[in-house]
Every structure is written in C-alpha cells, then in structure tokens.
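Pasting as-is:
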Amino acid sequence: MRLRSRWRLCCLVWTLLLLAGSCLDVRPRYSFDIARAQMWRCVQGPGWNISRMDRAGTGVVILKRGVAWVELATDVPIGQMEDSLGLLDCVWLANVPSLLHTEGYGESAARDLIRTSPNGGRGVRGAEPSEGGAFGVEAWFTQYHNLSQMYQWYQRLGEDYPGRVTVNTSIGRTHYNYTIMAVHVTSKGAGQETRPTIYVQCLLHAREWITGPVCMYLAYYLASTDDLQVRVLLEKFQFIFVPVANPDGYLLTWLDYPKYRLWRKNVSPLDSTSCVGVDLNRNFDFHWNESDGSGNPCSEQYSGPQAASELETKAISNYLLSHAPVGGAIDFHSYYQGGPLSICLD
C-alpha cells in the first residue's frame, strides 16, 4: 500500500512539474492550480475518451489507468469533470498539497512546486484564506474529507481565530491509537473555564459522513461570525465539539472503498468471536442496554460487553464530565442508504 502511494506521488510530482513548466520552461497546456488540486479515482463511463481532455478546458492530470477506471488530479469540482470527460462514480483519494507534504516530499520543495503553478498557490496546507472567509470555505464544503484533513482543518481554525477557538488534539485514543480531538469555541476572557458547556458531537456512526461537515460548518460559523447574538452566546457558554467521535470506524469507511463504506460501529476486536466492533451510540453508561440495543456481537446495534466498555465512550464521557455543568448537547446523526454490513477478522 505504501509503495503504491509512493508511486502515485512520483507520477504526480513529475506531471505537475511539467504542467507548471518549471523543468522544461514550457507554457502549461492548462491553467492548473496545484494548491487546490485533488486526486480522484473514477469509473470510465460509456462516453469516456482520453482525447476529451483536450476539450475539457481546465487542468487534468491522468495519474494511472486501468481497464475500467482512471485516477486523476484536477483543480476544479469533480462534478464538472465527470460531465466533460465521461466519468462516473468518482471517489476522492487525496488532497494534492497535503499528499506532497505528508508523503515526505518536503514542505519547502512542495512550496517551490506550488509557486510554479499559473496563479502562484500560496502553501501546502490546503485551502487558503480568501475574501469569502478563511479556508476558501465554499470550496471546502463541496466534498468530503478524510480524518487527517479534518483534524488539520480544525487546527487551522484555531490558528485563524485564536480569540475564540482552542483545539485539544487528544482527549483520548482509540484501539488503533488514533486521537480523539475536541474543539472549544467561546469568547476568551475571564471566567471562560466556568461557563456552561454546550456539547456537539459528530461521526459517532462512521458511515454518516454528512455529519462531519455539519460540525465543521457550525464551528466555523461560531468562530468567524460577527453576529451580535452569537457574540453574546459565546460570552455565556463554551461550545465543545468532538468532530469525529469514532475515528477508527471513520477511517475504515475510507478503506478499500466502497467495501466498508457503510460500516457503522467502532473497530475494536471482541473476545470469543470473529465479529468486530461496538455500536458506540449504545455503549454510553446511561440506561445501558435497556432498549434498542443488541447482545449479539455481530449486530450493528451491539451494545458492547458492558456499559462504557469502549475507549471512545470512556474518553468522551470523562472529558464532558470534566467540563460540567452541561447546558445542552447535540449528537448529530444522518440517514444512510444500504443494508447491514458485517466484518470479521480472518
């Protein structure tokens, strides 16, 4: 898996250098903003023809092709590319600047690469501030983002709005040692630690992807708005977001897409069974296992061997109790399409 990622990176770096004209001093064929580029894997539809790239009118880099699929990088919304290139069912793979940095290409080298893009991208950290607000917020919310990107986004939120936002990068860890993040939004000043808490939680069920952007947009709005009513609210309460309450499960939904896309539980191994995971929504130590749960470890609604048996529910409960009193709480969920999904350990 690592080797394949490295191979993609080498192809990507070489192709982007050619597009930018930095090695051969040639004029880029397309206008291509590396700082905004995303990698996608798409199914080749009936109308797919690589020659249609000439008529696409924008920057597209073909990274890898199979019999029925193609991996590409582009700096425009993928919906436009699906229509213009005859592609179907595109799945997001990576943010190009983040990939360059994360895969060890080097921040300074990545910045040099990005500077050569036609409109001079300004960094390797993803979307940059714009007149419409930090992060290029409209572009950010046109697609889903993986765990690493979401965590980076919240850290950037704290850097851009230090007067309101504090990021606790780890309130606990999961079975696979991923951190659980908490984000505080309040008006900083005297007495802020004793303000009542309004708790907001997203992605407790891994497959409910849309809840992640709900938390992000709400946190962004509270941090950035000048609305008088919000300012008054932030002087009376502190909002605590746990934006990804089930990191292991959320990561699994991105793994080998779409095989595990509808995974719901966490991914902790269970004793005396090959089935995996507990429904965290039914594992908290409050009226545990009284109704709507299951004692079957293979069920999507398995409540766990005991109340608060899971690392995620323990971490969240302890953190919330340490920030009492709690004035309100919202646990966002969403509808999904599909049937039940099970996973077993070989």
